[in-house]
Design a protein that fits this description.
Blueprint (H helix, E strand, L loop, with lengths): L1 H30 L3 H16 L3 H14 L4 H13 L3 H14 L4 H14 L2 H14 L5 H22 L14 H4 L8 H14 L2 H14 L4 H13 L3 H14 L4 H25 L3 H14 L4 H17 L3 H14 L4 H13 L3 H14 L4 H17 L4 H5 L7 H15 L7 H21 L2 H8 L34
Helix pairs in contact: 2-3, 3-4, 4-5, 5-6, 6-7, 7-8, 8-10, 10-11, 11-12, 12-13, 12-14, 13-14, 14-15, 15-16, 16-17, 16-18, 17-18, 18-19, 18-20, 19-20, 22-23
Subcellular location: Endoplasmic reticulum
Pfam family, one: TPR_16
Keywords: Endoplasmic reticulum, Signal, TPR repeat
Length: 494
């Protein structure tokens, strides 16, 4: 009985051994396929792929990969089939394995970079594209064009993800300098156009213009380049240059719809801007304000023009002696363009008109930090500092309760009202009479300075004409209406 069992077990073990040998041989035949067999699978895969039979082709590439797991080209080829089938996620491991086996395999890096790009993995995509540039010192035209095109898509995707509609002044993504400085040929318009598009995406419109300008001569009837150049200059605020380029486009075809539409827009805006500046030159400030408000309605989407309009409206409001409105507009303009010294200067002048000298000094100081060599800013700061110092002594405008823009009639009217109110004869108590006398002297002094054009100009420049310390040699205009010789007699009409 035991002997029979041993014989049966021995038979089973023999059968298992034989099965293992057979399986081993079969696995050997697959995993250890010969070079010829692998090539046959690859050839069949190529034929089926060309015939559009992707699933059948893929099975042959599976055999090829299993037969030679060290061949980077086999992984790359199977990845290509996956991509043809729209299975980019399945292609990614094969491309990664191909790169691991051959780190300088540029085609695999480009394909993987494109997959990362489609998946929204911008950092990984950028690393692959930069690796291509760093590996390949001598880049072929076709490869460079592919990289640049891909980078344009990368930029667009990146900005779309951030919700950014404009590429202006955005440098979150950058290409290696070796790529954008690479020059194929000065007569290659396609390369210049691609590189210009990259510069536009990076917000470097000046370099884009440099690349696009020669293409207007390198291609016949290149209306697209003239239109793009016109648009770039327009976005930079160079409306005259923009007009020049769009006119060149219309010379090639006066009925070109895009160029004609853009020409009408630029022409209208340019006319408004020129007219506004003419009004300023003629000191017709309200008309200039109206024109700049029209500019903002004509072009609300390009920051240069809206910022410029607010800057100039701010200037005009100061010239029109409207400090409260000027401060509001200047502040809005400053928020949009914080390093603009003209806005800071004009707001400082508005603060001076509003008798807020501390803020005027602050604005002039900030402007001075941006431009230490500007004499107008330096002189304005010195004047604001003098006015601040004077305000802590006697401010004749505040004494009379009038604005710095008040005319002579307004000053005399304010003086008469206060002089009648504070005349010492109106008070009986000695202490009240002394206080009234002091007030009355200040009121009379304010009237003396502000109704005299020379003295008022001195005071507006930060000098007190009645303060001996502020005069050369200590000689000022000491003034007291109660001193002998003052000849101040008042007759008030009710």
């Amino acid at each position: 009985m035991d002997s029979g069992r041993r014989k049966g077990l021995s038979g089973v073990l023999s059968s298992l051994s034989l099965l293992c040998v057979i399986l081993d041989l079969q696995l050997d035949g697959v995993l250890g396929a010969t070079h010829v067999e692998i090539e046959q699978h690859l050839e069949m895969g190529r034929k089926l792929l060309a015939a559009g039979q992707l699933a059948e082709a893929l099975s042959h590439y599976h055999y090829a990969v299993e037969g030679d797991s060290k061949n980077y080209l086999t992984y790359y080829t199977r990845a290509a089939v996956f991509l043809a089938m729209g299975k980019s996620k399945s292609a990614l491991p094969d491309l990664t394995r191909a790169i691991q086996l051959k780190p300088d395999f540029l085609a695999a890096r480009l394909q993987r970079g494109n997959i990362f790009l489609k998946q929204g993995n911008t950092q990984e995509a950028r690393e692959d594209f930069e690796a291509v540039v760093n590996i390949e010192n001598s880049i072929s035209p076709s490869l460079l064009h592919l990289i640049l095109n891909t980078f344009i898509n990368l930029c667009a995707l990146y900005f779309n993800r951030l919700g950014i509609k404009s590429y202006m002044h955005t440098t979150e993504i950058s290409l290696p300098p070796t790529l954008l400085s690479f020059q194929l040929s000065p007569w290659d318009p396609e390369f210049r156009e691609l590189r210009a598009e990259c510069y536009i995406r990076l917000g470097d419109l000046r370099k884009a213009i440099q690349d696009l300008t020669p293409t207007t001569r390198l291609r016949n009837d290149n209306r697209a380049a003239f239109l793009k150049l016109s648009t770039l200059h327009y976005n930079l605020g160079e409306h005259q240059e923009s007009l020049g380029h769009v006119r060149e486009c219309l010379k090639l075809d006066q009925d070109d719809k895009e160029c004609l539409s853009h020409y009408k827009q630029v022409k209208k805006l340019s006319k408004q801007l020129d007219s506004a500046e003419e009004h300023i030159q003629e000191e017709r400030y309200q008309e200039a304000i109206d024109k700049y408000e029209s500019v903002m309605r004509t072009e609300p989407n390009v920051p240069y023009y809206t910022n410029k309009a607010r800057e100039r409206i701010c200037f005009c409001l100061v010239k029109n002696k409207m400090p409260a409105m000027a401060i509001d507009i200047c502040s809005e303009a400053h928020q949009r363009d914080p390093r603009n010294i003209n806005i800071l200067r004009d707001r400082a002048e508005a603060f001076i008109l509003n008798q807020d000298y501390e803020k005027a000094v602050e604005d002039y100081q900030e402007a001075r930090e941006f431009d230490m060599e500007n004499n107008e800013i330096r002189e304005g700061l010195e004047r604001a500092q003098k006015l601040l110092k004077l305000s802590r002594k006697r401010d004749y405008y505040k004494i009379l309760g009038v604005n710095r823009s008040a005319n002579k009639q307004e000053i005399i009217k304010a003086y008469r009202k206060l002089a009648q109110q504070w005349h010492p004869d109106n008070f009986r108590e000695e202490s009240e009479k002394k206080e009234a006398e002091k007030r009355f002297i200040d009121i009379a002094s304010a009237k003396e300075v502000l109704t005299n054009p020379e003295k008022r100009q001195m005071f507006d420049s930060g000098e007190d004409p009645l303060d001996p310390e502020s005069q050369p040699g200590g000689q000022g205009w000491p003034f007291n209406p109660f001193e002998s010789g003052g000849n101040y007699h008042f007759k008030f009409h009710h």
